[in-house]
Design a protein that fits this description.
277 residues; mainly alpha
Length: 277
Amino acid sequence: MSKRKRARIVRAVQYAVLVVVVVVVAVAADWGRVANAFFDLDVAGGMFPEVITVALVNTLIYTGLGFGFGLVLGLVVALMRLSSVRAYRWIAGAYVEFFRGLPALLVILAIGSGIPLAFPGTILDRYVSIMIALGIVGSAYMAETIRAGIQAVPKGQVEAARSLGMSQSKAMVWIVIPQAFKIILPPLTNELILLTKDSSLVLFLGSSQVQYELTQFGRTELNQSRSLTPVLVAGICYLIITIPLSYLSRYLERRTGGTKIRSAEATEVAQPEEATK
């Protein structure tokens, strides 16, 4: 049997398994109960417009605050990881490993409760607590992404900047970091998606009704209506945020890949010309 025939048989078996699973689920599930539980239009209608004007807006605000703070903190940690000072590298490495290894929920609870305990008399605004907590959660991952982007910038860029009289720090700020961010835009978009979902954990910090994000809003409606429809509506609202970001990430990946290909082609064209000279 040829490889092509074996590949066709394998694909046929995979499709057959998929069809069997779909048929079993379609026959075994009680679709009437599912419809009553998840598609109660009266419950869904009662969630509007607050699910958009309050919950969705607050989710966007919390995510934006956390991502902005995490990006700045991640850049600092990434630069410390690349520093020539060994102590900075150790501190940054310990920070990344520590916060990447902890669940996001524990970090959020520790920040929300730990700062007032560590600094008696300190009263943090809820938005500041959320910004710090989500920022720390995301910064440990963003730091490694930024570090990889900086290291991906060709060393010739720095050498060219230094030859023009720029200092190492100016070359890093004006030459390396802008190019690094152009490279890491797709993975940063993925980090934004993850942080959007992690923002659901701020419900454990407590909030008033006007500060509800999507998960807490859906949970409250779930307890009041005894229907799973609020879970579905909250999930759809999350998809309204994350699906466009996913398409944006893929678009940026294609553009970044196209830029790299064009640069490689230009280099290959230039090399024969230089050899001819």
